Amino acid sequence: MAAIAALTSCKKDDTLKYNNLTMGNVVDGTFISDQGNIFTVVEYNCRGELEKMERAIVLCDVLKKVAGTENEYEVRVNDMAGVLVKDHITKTEADADAEKSVQDPIYVDHPWISGGYINMFLQYETKSGSTKKHLVNLVLDEEELANGNYVFTLRHNSEGESMVHGAENPVLGGSYVSFPITGLIKEDRAEITIKWKWYKNMGYGWSSETQENSYKLSYTKGGYEQAPAALASKATTNLN
Between the CA atoms of 227, 229, 235 and 240, what dihedral angle is there, to the nearest 10 degrees? Predict the structure, then answer.
């Protein structure tokens, strides 16, 4: 969450800041943002049960600071989505498992680092109304690691729900995923490369052919990046 500004007057209520989009963990029913703020939900303006989630992305209004605290706030939640948390695996592990070795198209949207996680919003093909779980893994290249490089490939098993498997009229689904990295990266600073396979953009539409894409992230120990301005309501939960 962006740094909370000083209290300003507001005719409707004493809201400090509107529409904070932040990711964090749910601990004993309390939301603790990646920036270290503690949010107590006093009002819901959406459906969902935050206390049942392990990690979530929350769109909220900060109503007031809790008296006598440094970083505790009462909030109104306007939107939220659960976040899948998965440990990365090695390329050797992925190649040895038929389910995990599949690399169906998937698109990495809005990757960022906060809370000791690589966070991302993933988009992928699925059938309309499908409840089938797709498999996703962040795969670490051990050879690159031996040379001091952190290079990951995102692998996706669509369980047959993509065009590469002949699926008819697939729709685009989306999910938030977080991969913890503090146990892997020992340096204070590091560069991270993420690769994935997605369809070629022909300028006038998407081709049925795929191509490799990549994105670079800069990791700083204890660092924080604000969650990108993406709507939590876009997310579904059909990844595992």
Answer: -30
